[in-house]
Amino acid sequence: MSVVIVGAGQAGLQVAASLREAGYAGSVTLVGEEADLPYQRPPLSKAYLAGKTDAAGLALRAPGFFSEHRIEHRAGIRATAVDRARREVHVEGASPLPYEHLVLATGARVRPLPVPGADLEGVHALRSLADADRLKAALADAREIAIVGAGFIGLELAAICSARGLSVTVIEAAGRPMARAVSVDTGAFFRDAQAAAGVRFRFGAGVTAVEGEGGRAVALALADGDRLAADLVLVGIGVIPNEEIAGEAGLAVGNGIHVDAFLATQDPVVSAIGDCARFPSRFADGAAIRIESVQNALDQGRCVAARIAGRPAAYDAVPWFWSDQGPHKLQIAGLPAPGDESVVRHAETGFSVFRFRDGRLTGVESVDRAADHMAARRILAQAIALTPDQAADTACDLKAVAM
Ligand code: FAD
Questions:
Q1: Rounded to whole angstroms, how far apart are CA atoms 291 and 323?
Q2: Among the residues of 71-164, which ranges form H helices?
Q3: Are 177 and 149 in contact (CB under 8 A)?
Q4: Best of 45, 106, 157 to mutate for ligand 1, by most ligand atoms within 8 A of CB?
Q5: Is the CB of 107 under 6 A from ligand 1?
Q6: Which of 35, 95, 170, 390 is deepest in the core (most CB within 10 A)?
Q7: Is the Cβ atom of 301 under 6 angstroms away from ligand 1?
Q8: Can you tell me the distance from the alpha carbon of 343 to that of 365, in angstroms, rounded to the nearest whole number?
Q9: pTM of the model
């Protein structure tokens, strides 16, 4: 028996590790195009860029882990095609790898800014360790930073840059920050906290071009005719799932590689997990969604490993996520949608926003309220019926409700 995993990121590594934990005895090959040992991406826009950890501190496992667990890590090798008839993965510069089960864990890549000048020097995006190193070097000489996109990564970068005393402007097409992911209340809190730290915002603004001089970015042209001087442009406008290898192999794709509740594609010996997978979720009323988070990558890795090891179960983990912005920690449990009702629960430090749809709890956004977040995860996992009145009532013990 042999398993080949394409993509040595958070999800791919987890499948390999969980297979061994489950006692799987066959061969496990982990193919990754990046040269590094599998590493965590979240600190790239947090501790790593702030200089609080180094590359060794990002590693998900020590170098010895792979040989100890008989996981063949083929680093710096790109998988180019899947031959499903022959059950082989074609890779650059080496013989095809035969598989009995194939796991696609190819992640996602940054969405490029679709305007003239986006390829000028001084325009950066952040997905990989190599991107972070380029950005770190560029920040050393930068003064005026323009960040395109007020999503999680844009705001985390804004917090880091403003803490370094740089001039920061965030340009966002929507009317508020993190508009697709969080409530008006949570968005307003982070907007105000960042503004108090000196970050300027332009909401409802479109970028039409990056202007350059001598091949370097010097300004952004905005749709309303304004021009914003910038010697460093950071683009954080979302990602595109790496689904091409699956599509070319005849598997269903479109905003991710389509999988069923067990994370299998229509070919039962090919699974897809993590940022690249589109799966049906009870937290989205059964709709097929893609989730970009560490939790999702890890739990889907575990789910597929269990199935390969002979213990199949549908994927049903509660989605959760975090984002660190300056001194504040945002944690989200569940999958709130923009139209969901908001009930704010205040505390001495921080607050949580409970989101409801048709009277049913869909998610909880906690700001500096780790205990609320942990209780929310348990409440959502067990589908406990919490009412909006209970959510708002600080005398109601959430921990007891979650028991
Ligand atoms: P990835 O980690 O992207 O791994 C996929 C790997 O596959 C990559 O190494 C890629 O190079 C490789 N690959 C792709 N195609 C091929 C191929 N054909 N052949 C070989 N290799 C291939 N999530 C949170 O929950 N909280 C956070 O605070 C948070 N912060 C983040 C900050 C940043 C800067 C970034 C970039 C992400 C952050 N995330 C955060 C998201 C989280 O890191 C991702 O959801 C997670 O890494 C997804 O894991 P994955 O294994 O699916 O994909």
A1: 15
A2: 129-139, 152-163
A3: no
A4: 106
A5: yes
A6: 170
A7: no
A8: 10
A9: 0.97
Helix, strand, coil abundance in the chain, percent, nearest 5 = 25, 30, 40
Joined tokens for residue 77: 């090798």
Residue with tokens 């996520």: 321
Contact 147, 162 (CB under 8 A): no
The one-letter code for the residue type at 340 is D
Quick one: 396 exposed, middle or buried, by C-beta within 10 A (0-12, 13-18, 19+)?
Answer: middle
User: Ligand 1: distance of its center to the CA of 41 in Å?
Assistant: 6
Let me know: does 267 contact 84? Beta carbons within 8 Å: yes
Torsion of the alpha carbons at 274, 137, 162 and 218, rounded to the nearest 10? -100
Q: Ligand 1 in contact with 79 (CB < 6 A)?
A: yes
Residues in a beta bridge with 165: none
- Render the burial of 377-386: b for 16+ CB within 10 Å, e for the rest: bbbbeeeeeb
Q: Mind listing the pLDDT tens digit for each residue in 282-338?
A: 999 999 999 999 999 999 999 999 999 999 999 999 999 999 999 999 999 999 999
Q: Which of 9, 66, 3 is nearest to 307 (CA)?
A: 3
Say whether the ipTM exceeds 0.90.
Answer: yes
Pairing state between β 108-110 and 71-75: unpaired
φ, ψ of residue 388 to 5 degrees: the values are: -60, -35
Span 112-140, average pLDDT: 97
Name all domains of the chain by residue range, CATH numbers in brackets: 2-109+239-308 (3.50.50.60), 117-233 (3.50.50.60), 327-402 (3.30.390.30)
Contact 286, 280 (CB under 8 A): yes
Q: Are 299 and 317 in contact (CB under 8 A)?
A: yes
pLDDT digits (tens, 9 = 90+) for 200-218: 999 999 999 999 999 999 9
Q: Which amino acid is at 5?
A: I
* In 191-235, beta strands by DSSP E: 200-203, 207-213, 216-222, 227-229, 232-235
Q: Does the beta carbon of 31 lie inside 6 Å of ligand 1? A: yes
